Amino acid sequence: MAHFACIELGGTKINLAAGSGPDDMSAVVRLPTLDPASTLAAMVEQLRHLAGEGGFDAIGVASFGPIALTPGTSAYGHFRQTPKPGWSGADLLGPIRDAFPQTPIALDTDVNGAALGEARWGGAVGLDSFAYVTVGTGIGVGLVCNGRPVHGLLHPEAGHIRVRRQPDDSYAGHCPFHGDCLEGLACGPAIQARTGKAGETLAADDPVWSLTGRYLAELFHSLILIASPQRILVGGGIGLNPAVLTAARDAAHSGLGGYIEALEDRSTFDEFIQPAHLGDRAGVMGALALAQGASHEHRAP
Amino acid sequence: MAHFACIELGGTKINLAAGSGPDDMSAVVRLPTLDPASTLAAMVEQLRHLAGEGGFDAIGVASFGPIALTPGTSAYGHFRQTPKPGWSGADLLGPIRDAFPQTPIALDTDVNGAALGEARWGGAVGLDSFAYVTVGTGIGVGLVCNGRPVHGLLHPEAGHIRVRRQPDDSYAGHCPFHGDCLEGLACGPAIQARTGKAGETLAADDPVWSLTGRYLAELFHSLILIASPQRILVGGGIGLNPAVLTAARDAAHSGLGGYIEALEDRSTFDEFIQPAHLGDRAGVMGALALAQGASHEHRAP
To answer: In CATH, what number does B123-277 get?
Structure first.
């Protein structure tokens, strides 16, 4: 039976697991994401435990970004400029490769990984073009086109698109790069800054949820018209808030103005934008999908 | 020697040509785009002339959209809802198939076709992720991801993204579906409506060029962050206007705020967004690339 390592590297914690498939996985080991050196050392130590004597058939890494994804370049597996202190330029893959030099390793963003997981076991089975959107502390978008995750120059960073400001919204936005890009206006810290409260403590009908949903609709509109996905899956604590999702669907459907015939029917549209299926497991399942892919490519080059 | 038919179907005219490759093509035959029945009948008649006795090895069709691109569906090759009178639902491929029942036919949008032509013979050779943007009477975007044009639910219709309004711009926009989407604010008819003059008669430093460029920058920003292209090629009479392109690059570079490290250097960025190479030939060359692809798939299924 194959034995895969699954690494989900998030901005605040790492989830590690190992197993042969979604129904045969170890318990998830959680580590805090601190500075790169100590974090990656702790991660490798845990991986050695999970590997056991037989090692891994492949390792899948689903990581926060931005991170260089073009194999064969010197930057491959290194973080790019990130507001996360200490992590700009850090080498994520090096320590894993050093510890498991013979093992195929596949790397992608956490959100591209989650999208692959949804394609294998979740809400995008059978689709070859779709988007996975998560809205929480930040806004991340995984995108699959023509059956493969989109990389290109870097990888999608669609949380940072510029959006049309809602009337009467004077909040300056909190993105350190763009101020009032989508992420700057519509994720967890923006909700906290607008209301002075953590999202969990707000009433279900607080107007900030609807405002956030209307901003999220701008992303849906642009995704539909640029990438033409067959489905948009939404995850994350804020993305799954019913008031956010309802407002986002309302505004996106109305904003399209009937232009995309296949999405004109409202119930079809509400199916088109649906909650992601894998929930909390999306990251680890994404890493598993990456590992399985790496193992497959390794065996059949 | 292979003999390919190339059909570029535009909103106002059809370009037809035949030959074995880019350096061996017939003169281009031009027909006006009138109602579907008479237009397609005239097109088929010209194709029969171009076919000669030997027929075609394959036919490539690069058409205005929206048009259904999923082979095997009943809508395949039919136009979707379009503001062009009489063309909503019209069957483009049927008459071609009836006339050449044994010949492989490949269909894509004019802009996806142009992108493929640029990949084969123009400004995107060697790239597997890039965008082709044309700005003229309308705004069209062809997108290649993972080496193939993007289709998905429909195909990119990125001229219709919602953009942030420029301060002090009160023009309502002219898009019949969205009013002030990008196309509604920044293409030929918008320039005419704002200035009361045709673009060709305006001074090179008319402020409308810079305004148009700043709107176009919103598209570049969203393309970069959603589709992560390795290059953006720009065509069309308005897109190639130097004042438009300069303003668009300025605003897009500044709007990214240094977030995409690989595009931070300004001269790299100006190379990243560059004029398309094939110019007026983009449509026919796109159709040729489609025909060659269809012929190849037909021989090696």
So the answer is: 3.30.420.40
- Cβ of A162 within 8 Å of Cβ of B221? The answer is yes
Task: Determine the residue type at A21.
Answer: G
Domain ranges of chain B: 4-109, 123-277
Q: Are B60 and B290 in contact (CB under 8 A)?
A: yes
| A18, containing H or E segment | strand A13-21
pLDDT band at A81; cut points 50, 70, 90: confident
Q: Is B251 on the interface with A (CB under 8 A)?
A: no
> Can you give the C-alpha Rg of chain A in angstroms?
19
Q: Which residues are registered as beta bridge partners of A173? A: none
DSSP letter (8 states) at residue A201: G
CB neighbours of B299 closer than 8 A, spacing ≥ 6?
Answer: none
* Stretch 27-86 of chain A: residues touching chain B, C-beta under 8 Å: 66, 80-81
Q: Please, which residues 158-217 of chain B have a Cβ atom closer than 8 Å to chain A? A: 158-165, 177-178
CA nearest to A149 within chain B: B146
- DSSP code for A239: T
Which DSSP category does A12 fall into?
A: S
CA-CA-CA-CA torsion sign (B251, B256, B260, B265) = positive
CB spacing of B228 vs A261 below 8 angstroms: no
Residues 6+ apart with CB under 8 A from B246: B213
pLDDT tens for each residue of B198-238: 999 999 999 999 999 999 999 999 999 999 999 999 999 99
Give just the sign of the alpha carbon dihedral B95, B98, B99, B105. positive
Minimal CA separation from B275 to chain A, in Å: 18
Contact predicate A133/A239, CB 8 Å: yes
Question: What ipTM goes with this model?
Answer: 0.95
Give pLDDT, residue A290. Answer: 97
Question: What is the C-alpha separation between A38 and A48, in angstroms, rounded?
Answer: 16
User: What are the CA-CA distances from residue B3 to residues B39, B53, B152, B171 (Å)?
Assistant: 23, 11, 30, 49
A178 → closest Cβ in B161, B162, B259: B259
The C-alpha torsion from B280 through B281 and B286 to B289, rounded to 10°, is: -170
Report the topology of domain A4-109: Nucleotidyltransferase; domain 5 (3.30.420)
Q: Do domains B4-109 and B123-277 have the same CATH topology?
A: yes
Is A218 within 8 Å of B162 when comparing Cβ atoms? yes
Report yes or no: A101 at the B interface, CB cutoff 8 Å.
no
Cβ contacts of A225 on chain B, cutoff 8 Å:
156-161
What are the tens digits of pLDDT across the range A143-200?
Answer: 999 999 999 999 999 999 999 999 989 999 999 999 999 999 999 999 999 999 999 9
